[in-house]
Amino acid sequence: MLLSCVNLSKVDPLHTGSMSYPKGATHMSDTVVHIGDLNKADVLAALYNAAQPQGMGFMQYDPTPMTHNEAQAILNSGQTYFDYLKGRVMKVNLEGEEFDPWGFNRDNGTMAAETVIARLRNDGDANPAETQEDHKARVKATASQAFDSMGRSSHMSNVGGIPTMELGLADVAEELGPKVAAALDSTDA
């Protein structure tokens, strides 16, 4: 089996530019996911299909899986960095032959990017049953968190002597609540 991760400290110990990132950003992890042997549209579709909505992302969330053709059209537009895509948190730059999974994994689960790419590499399917089930479980979890946050207002607090803004969603609950409910309903389909 082809390894999909490389330790950057061996490839680029000073992290001087083995990858491209959005202006001003740097990579956050010591590993990258190699995608040079895969079709980028399939990679984008697979990552999208696994990614979860969170917070205000529910306002744009589309539960419909992304197809190869849809992903190819997005890539043909020149876009290679994805923060959120149709409400799903992505945090990936697919410009090169590899990408830093840190942001995707932070928001979608430990080793989520590596798992998605391994599944794609193993069977060529950008939306296998395992990914669909993982996605539904994460939608349920993030919907629960969103509902909890809708019961809280944003406020300042002091955490360990550091002024901290704690964000709540009470001020947008009327608009956000139905979107989160619709996302939850989509997991039953």
Provide a compact summary of the structure.
This protein is α+β, with helices and mostly antiparallel strands and 189 residues long. The protein has helices at residues 8-11, 40-50, 68-76, 102-108, 112-123, 129-150, 173-186, and strands at 5-7, 31-34, 81-85, 88-93, 98-99, 155-159, 162-166.
Name some characteristics of this structure.
disordered N terminus; 7 helices; two-stranded antiparallel ribbon; globular; alpha+beta; 42% helix; 189 residues
Overall number of structural domains? 1
Major sheet: order of its strands? 1-2-5
- Rounded Rg: 18 Å
Largest sheet: 3 strands, antiparallel
Total number of beta strands: 7
How much strand content do the residues show?
Answer: 15-25%
Shape: globular
Mean pLDDT over the full residue set: 87
Helix content range = 40-55%
Uncertain residue ranges: 1-26
Structural class: alpha+beta
Question: What is the CA–CA distance across the termini?
Answer: 34 Å
